[in-house]
Amino acid sequence: MSTLQKRLTGSRQDATIIAPSNTKQRILGDVMRLRFLGTNSEQGTCPALYETDHGTLAIQGTLIMDPEALADCVNRAPGEVIVEVPKELMRFLRAE
């Protein structure tokens, strides 16, 4: 089991996901900085949206572990996870 998988299969129910296909390399190798874009949580916790200094997005949400839901995913590579966030969180995305 990779370091990434160990980190994501623990008792925590949230995760930070980075979009590109080389996610594992970026999490485990490169130093990355996140800029907070917003949350819809009044407690200031999960869910949240971030912009990275690599030109990607990171999403903090509830880790989906339901095998039937995961079976609906397409082209999910080893080490990739799926998180659930409210649609309203996307309001923090800006048009470029």
Please characterize this protein's 3D structure.
There is one protein chain. This protein is 18% helix and 26% strand. It is built from three helices and five strands; from the N terminus they run H-E-H-E-E-E-H-E. It has one domain.
Protein topology:
Layout: H1 3-8, E1 14-18, H2 23-28, E2 34-39, E3 48-52, E4 57-63, H3 67-71, E5 83-84
Antiparallel strand pairs: 1-4, 2-3, 3-4, 4-5
Short description, anyone?
Helices cover 18% and strands 26% of the residues. The chain has 96 residues and is of the alpha+beta class. The protein has one domain.
- How far apart the termini lie comes to 38 Å
- Structural class, from secondary structure content? alpha+beta
Order of helices and strands: HEHEEEHE
What Rg do the Cα atoms give?
A: 14 Å
- Show unreliable segments: 1-24
Number of discrete domains: 1
Give the overall shape, derived from the CA principal axes: globular
Helix fraction?
10-25%
Strand tally, please? 5
Oligomer: single chain
Strand content: 25-35%
Average of the residue pLDDT scores: 75
Question: Features of this protein?
Answer:
96 residues, alpha+beta
